[in-house]
Design goal:
heterodimer; A: about 120 residues; about 50% strand; B: about 110 residues; mainly beta; seven-stranded mixed β-sheet; four-stranded antiparallel β-sheet; 11 strands; about 55% strand
């Protein structure tokens, strides 16, 4: 069963729009970790953020922000004022005891930002 | 600091052959993990090595194996290649055993099996 669901397969926005990528996860653990990675066309996965289950504080890094809500098992990612360079596939991942803490990835959301 | 490097970047093999992929982690990193990425199955965990020992293994057949050397470099081997093994194979390294530490990925090796 898919433990990380990224319901949005593809999103297309115009430059400078804000965009939110959704991530819903499923785990029985009280201690777990959530990640976001970016995969540009070059193929390399770029680490964006790691969050542990005890830290529900929202995080902002430049134009990127993350909203972690345990009550809804969601860890959403927002890009403010999107740019063409943000075009990539974004993956949400869960790390819990069920996988021995290996990364369990969602299917990814392909984001296309057009000028 | 140099990132994770993987060699070769591209590989074409024939069904039934075997292949070895190499991964050099970031200097000082002791944990190396391998993932397979395909359009159908997405990103799937293969195995993780830490201090030359396999610490975790995903749900892949025994044809997939790996090892880690004393300098933390890792290799993975796939024997008796099948068409379905065509994929992007990604290596990731972390300072110590995850998940306390982030995993940083290499550019991948794209394997095509014909």
């Amino acid at each position: 069963a898919q433990k990380v669901t990224q319901a949005q397969t593809e999103i297309s926005v115009v430059e400078k729009e804000d965009v939110t990528l959704d991530c819903v996860y499923e785990t029985r653990d009280t201690t777990y970790y959530l990640f976001w990675y970016k995969q540009p066309p070059s193929g390399e996965l770029v680490f964006l953020i790691r969050r542990n289950s005890f830290d529900e504080q929202n995080e902002i890094s430049g134009r990127y922000s993350w909203n972690f809500q345990k009550s809804t098992s969601s860890f959403n990612f927002t890009i403010t004022a999107s740019q063409v360079v943000d075009s990539a596939v974004y993956f949400c991942a869960l790390s819990d005891s069920n996988s021995g803490y290996a990364l369990n990835f969602g299917k990814g959301t392909s984001l296309l930002v057009t000028p | 600091k140099a990132g994770v490097t993987q060699t070769p970047r591209y590989l074409i093999k024939t069904r039934g052959q075997q292949v070895t992929l190499s991964c050099s982690p970031i200097s000082g990193h002791r944990s190396v993990s391998w993932y397979q990425q395909t359009p159908g199955q997405g990103l799937q965990f293969l195995f993780e090595y830490f201090s030359e020992t396999q610490r975790n293994k995903g749900n892949f057949p025994g044809r997939f194996s790996g090892r880690q050397f004393s300098n933390s470099r890792s290799e993975m081997n796939v024997s008796t290649l099948e068409l379905g093994d065509s994929a992007l194979y990604l290596c990731a390294s972390s300072l110590e055993a995850y998940p306390r530490y982030e995993q940083y990925f290499g550019p991948g090796t794209r394997l095509t099996v014909t």
